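Hi R.,

Here's the chain you asked about this morning:
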Amino acid sequence: MRINRRTILAASTALPLVACSKAPVPKPKPLTPATDEFVHGVASGDMTETSAIIWTRWDGETPNDTPVVLDWDVCLSSDISAPVKTGKVTANTETDYTVKVDVTGLDAGKNYVYRFTAGAAASAAGRFSTLPAGKTDKLRFAVVSCCNWESGFFNAYDHIANHKGFDAVLHLGDYFYEYGQGGWGGQAGESIGRLHEPAHELLTLDDYRKRHAQYRTDPALQAMTAAHPLLPIWDDHEVANDSWSGGAQNHNQGEDEWEVRKAAALRAYYEWMPVREQTSRADMYKAYSFGDLLTLVTAETRLSARDEPINIDLHTKNMTTLADADKFRKEVLNIPDRRMMDAAQTDFIVDAFSKSKTSGQPWRLLGNQVIMGKVHTADLGPYVKEENILAMEADWPGVRDFVRNSAFGLPLYPDSWDGYPWARQKFYDALNKAGINDMLVVTGDAHEYWVNDLTDDNGVKMGVELGTTSVTSPTLKSYFGDDTPDYSLLVTQNNKDVRYYNAMHNGYIDLFFTRNKASAKLVTVDTILSRNYSADTIAQFTIRKHDDSLKFTSPKGLKLKQRALFSGLG
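And here is the predicted structure, written out as tokens:
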């Protein structure tokens, strides 16, 4: 399969909970591990003020594919002696023996514990909180993205699982990868005993189900989804690399029709994730209101409306002058009507944020798949070594053309919003018209930390962006090695809206909101090749209100050159 420039550049422990029980429990007891009938763990998510989804899978014996009836119960964390909600749900072949329950009639802003049982068989217990109503003083998210099984162990998940303060985990996509064994990013798989199953690239419903099942055997993933509710959106690899409404880079001639493959991938996704079932295309994007503090919208920019990404390698091959680059911008990049999302989704986001602002909420948070900030290439010619090019060339045949033409300031990632400048400006125009200029955008996909200002084509400030790095997928360090920090400085220096960029580490973002400010800690893990790891906060930023928009302040952990570039002094 072909790997494109974007993928190169972007390059079960028991929880200390108490099980719900229908019999009175005199005092909390430690939770015993789940029995073998529930080896895929539990998960929760998609909360409202009065409801939440709880999920598990039955893994016990099913003679002749017979259905299995499971009991579930939900208790208040503060009083596990009596369930507040109970019920039954049937696991069967139709949903690959996964089950989801939309638990309703709950109280807003409460902490709950849940579990599934069938006779003597019992799942692990999990936690979730309903969305708060009314006065809300603080909120904390773990922000994650890009988790390749073969690249390494999910140590970022483990670190999140052991942090009790998170209200939810925002998963910005690439929850798994569709590649076969040894595919891109999987070089470490054999040495650490983590090879993809099935061994081939995912194409059918059975394939996607098996890959979901494999990822959910990971103890760190299980611990994280038991400890915290999940608010996920998909990116491309949940179906196929660089997917768009009519296909994908990794969907090739001779494979099933795109719509068949996409439908199989989405069916498996809805079976295996703690989200409500999709009843219309509008259900692909959602809004969550957290009391009087924050509205979160999770966008969908892959499958419903996105036009085909520009394969810039086809244009840079014969590009040798600035005039060639200007012609590319005029005739290819900046043509109108290239969509990232449709008008209905734009209206949905603008309406949700307008209601948020009118109600007095101080924060508007957008969960977004691909980099929204303006990031153009810096002249790499004097800096990229021959060994760097050789390291990338096998995976990216057009890398020499890219380096040669990097001086022309082309989009660094054409698959991102930079490859859809008309669509981005249309989105900004709609927000401007509604008086929304203070989005805090969190973004995945790129396997790098980004701290970006967001400005429209007229220089109007639209908010700020935080890009999270990958949980395991390769960073640029895989190709640039010890030269990666110098490359990061070069990108920051040559892009006005980029305040900080770090392409070295795997990890996640710890994002904390109060009424007056937000703080973002960039949390890294020192290894993904062993489950024995340490974690560190490599940098920290504060976000505050400024002139009806947002600004980054008070950076911590930055080195001298990074701090100078952050302050605009570089």
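One quick note: The two ends are 41 Å apart (CA to CA).

Cheers,
M.
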